[in-house]
Amino acid sequence: MSRIVAIVGRPNVGKSTLFNRLTQSRQAIVDEESGVTRDRIYGKADWNGITFSVIDTGGYVEGSDDIFEEEINKQVLVAIEEADAIIFLTDVTTGVHDLDKSVASLLRKSGKKIFLAVNKVDNNSLISAAFEFYELGLGNPYPLSSLNGSGTGELLDDIVKVLPPAGVEEETELPRVAIVGRPNVGKSSLLNSLLGEERNIVTPLAGTTRDSIYTRYNKFNHDFLLVDTAGLRKKSRIKNDIEFYSVMRAVKAVENSDVCLLMVDATRGIESQDISIFSLIQRNNKGMIVLVNKWDLVKKDSNTAKLFEEEIRKRTAPFTDYDILFISAINKQRIHKILECIEKVNNNRKKRIPTSELNEAMQEAFRAYPPPAVRGKNIKIKYVTQLPSYSPAFAFFCNYPQYIKEPYKRYLENRLRENFDFTGVPIKIFFRKK
Ligand code: GDP
Ligand code: GDP
Predict the structure, then answer these.
(1) pLDDT at position 228
(2) pTM score, two decimals?
(3) Which of 179, 182, 184 to mutate for ligand 2's pocket (most ligand atoms within 8 Å of CB)?
(4) How close is the Cα of 428 to the center of ligand 2, in Å?
(5) Which of 150, 328, 372, 396 lies at a 20 to 30 A Cα distance from 203?
């Protein structure tokens, strides 16, 4: 189940500063692990071991003051529809602003969990001014300073209380598959090619409300759930041109999936938004398959696909162990290949390697190239075991876990991938003291 908190508010109140503060510590760790570049619009927060996604609506709004109101209101409406909780950020130094009032009136009607936060309360002398925001009718404000962090703890304490229960990943019997990518890349076309018009293949699952976001695909011996088919089919013109909306949907779809089909547009090449979605999938440790769509439109020679592949892997390095398929959603080209790939990646993600087999393969790797000594201390890895997690994670036991550096971790990951097929799945590696 997704757990998404959106930060809304007018420009310059400090949304991105707050976003950085909420996601920083966690981001730093994740980035070190995977080497992916961080982007400001989506991040994971961790408060006392409870994690949730944070989305900053800033950075989308451009233009003059009069366009602001309309643009901000649009984003607020999307946040109301899609987020689990909303932080409405205001600025104590400007006092209650007209734009704050119009946002507040939308939020009051929403029925969502709203946290009214008053930012830039850098010292106690500003606290009484912060309570003036009570007039917005959204309860007691949380005075805080995104810059120095004061007050953010109280806010986080209350946010994690209202989020849906987390921790364990939801387990469905069938793998859940999300189709993600930028607007117009061909997601709905692929969905239509998969599901077709034939009624008997499309079996919406009855029962709980949550089921309604999945559609079962059961054909050609392949059986899985497609995530958020309603969202892909029912396109609204207004929402579609809000980039924030597509980011929101992508985050939700990825969080609710086991395997993701990341579509990129062959006629445009790989772009920075594609990389953002890639890292979203990677950070959530979901299965990854890259589909280069509209391949029918590309003028090609014998080298074109290879160059395309190289370019994509170069951009996503160091994670390069995934399949790239060249498809045409409207011509139904390589649909079967996609189905086989989904099954393979899902199996790789669920794969459990017995400890004996794992050590047999990896002892050789420790011997051939031991971790470099640090301050005269020889580092010895004794053994490795796979952790009982939803996606592949390994613990390497050694005498000085704190001295093992990123390059060696990557070396171990590469040896794991050479010995066992983990195509399409991010791997987590931990070092523990023996
Ligand atoms: P956004 O447009 O809402 O994303 O706002 P930014 O995060 O870009 O912040 C706008 C300005 O406010 C920047 O100059 C920040 O340094 C400043 N700012 C953000 N948070 C605080 C705070 O807690 N205290 C003070 N004094 N300044 C802040
Ligand atoms: P979405 O916004 O990602 O759901 O994209 P759509 O499925 O709505 O597709 C956007 C446009 O691209 C439509 O005009 C499609 O007909 C076109 N399109 C999608 N897939 C292909 C393809 O494989 N080849 C070609 N030539 N056009 C495609």
Answers:
(1) 74
(2) 0.81
(3) 184
(4) 35
(5) 328
